[in-house]
Design a protein that fits this description.
Layout lengths: L16 H4 L3 H17 L3 H17 L4 H24 L7 H26 L3 H10 L4 H30 L8 H31 L16 H24 L1
Length: about 250
């Protein structure tokens, strides 16, 4: 795929060479299979082993603990919303089974997030989109994903600019009738600005005869190292599932 704007490219500093050379299609297949394998686990002990494997793999590829913690913070509020009611929803005393089930959900979620972080931070966005195209994902889906990824950053930029403008006008925040009106005005302005930008982008793409299909690079042939890298997560998660079935 043709190179996108610079801010779309992933930051690949510190990523090991063997992780960067892993062919994108096989990496995506390995990640999807590993995630489905993690979801099928039924005990916290084996889910923890899967999490340990994911952590070891991410560190071996050059990802930092700080990056992983930042990604965990994204899903942490949602995990609390799911797990806390499971633990205390049945009243007191709290049953061990409820804690175990909540821990299982928590481990599966952070394991899947770890693996997704590996997928998205060991290759460029272009490589990821190319892998989707070569796996026959509909072009319109890929186009929507790419544009959504691009405009998420623009959306956050607009929010930061509005926050800066509000602070420059001595807006201190808080909950009050006056502040709620300000929040409503900011939200409305942000929505209108987003709609205007979307219309401008649509008109620009239509003027350039864009038909919803992005051009992609030719797929790279798999080599034996790509096959080996893909086989390792396959083997590990299948082994965990098989051993778990024996012991439960």
């Amino acid at each position: 795929m043709a190179k996108s704007q610079g801010d779309i490219q992933s930051n690949l500093e510190g990523i090991t060479r063997w992780a960067l050379s892993w062919e994108a299609r096989s990496k995506l297949i390995a990640v999807v299979f590993f995630i489905f394998g993690v979801i099928s686990l039924k005990t916290t002990s084996f889910a923890f082993l899967a999490f340990a494997i994911a952590i070891i793999g991410s560190l071996a590829m050059g990802l930092s603990i700080v990056l992983l913690l930042k990604r965990y913070l994204i899903i942490f509020p949602f995990l609390l919303l799911m797990t806390v009611p499971l633990i205390i929803g049945g009243g007191f005393p709290i049953e061990v089974d409820r804690i175990s089930f909540a821990a299982l959900i928590f481990l599966k979620a952070i394991t899947c997030m770890t693996v997704m972080t590996i997928l998205l931070h060991t290759q460029t966005v272009d490589d990821f989109m190319d892998s989707l195209a070569h796996l026959k994902v509909p072009p319109i889906v890929i186009t929507i994903l790419l544009l959504s990824y691009r405009y998420v950053f623009l959306f956050f930029d607009d929010i930061q600019k509005m926050q800066l403008a509000a602070r420059a006008r001595f807006f201190s925040g808080g909950i009050s009738i006056r502040n709620l009106k300000v929040y409503g005005q900011l939200t409305g302005g942000l929505l209108i600005k987003s709609l205007d930008r979307a219309e401008n982008v649509y008109n620009a793409m239509t003027a350039r005869c864009f038909n919803g299909t992005i051009r992609f690079r030719e797929k790279r042939e798999l080599n034996r190292w790509d096959v080996l890298k893909t086989f390792i997560p396959f083997f590990l998660i299948v082994t965990l599932i098989a051993i778990e079935k024996v012991y439960i």
